[in-house]
User: Fold Phosphate regulon transcriptional regulatory protein PhoB from Marinobacter salinus.
Amino acid sequence: MTRTVLIIEDNPGIGELVRMQVTDLGMQAILIDRGDSGLERFRQDGVDLVILDLMLPGMDGLAVCREIRSSPGYVPVLMLTAKSTELDRVLGLEMGADDYLTKPFSVAELAARIKALFRRVDALSAREETEAEAGLLEVDGLRIDPVRRRVFVDEREVDLTAREFDLLWHFARHRGRVFSRAQLLDSVWGYNHEGYEHTVNTHINRLRNKIEADPAEPRYVQTVWGVGYRFMD
Assistant:
């Protein structure tokens, strides 16, 4: 099945360059030059990857990325940015981008990043099929359904983003095991950019706020000081 790539880029030259590269990879490319219009197209479904500029008219790339990550299911996001400061890259990753490219970039590097993201998607799909066979996981009032990707705490359903669910499921499948931030980036995000471990902290704080009765005294996702995090043993 042909993959569909949504390109949201307002620079005509860069947009056309990306569109041509996506087409050369044998994928269908949809090019839109506004953030709000791009988000509307994304919500029509049928998109397998979003290549997203940071600075866009109508709605900026960070806002678009945040809306994509709050939607059901998981679609990888490759963020393009003309800015090269660490803060911009971190903001993109914390909003849920899977990877980023700083302009100017080479066509070869763009192709490599696209292929890498789809390898991660394929690996994730295979892993989810295996995990689904295990059925429900229940522990101390927490119930996780990996097939429907639903989470309940004391019979109350909790609305998690795709990344929050992946993080919780990873912890729950390895109860008692301690993971460093770098290990979590590798296992859950699929990359490990040095210096971005605080992205893990942000997601764990959001996850705790949703599943813990008292996020300051977490029952499920516990901190191991100086090392990382673990799920209750």
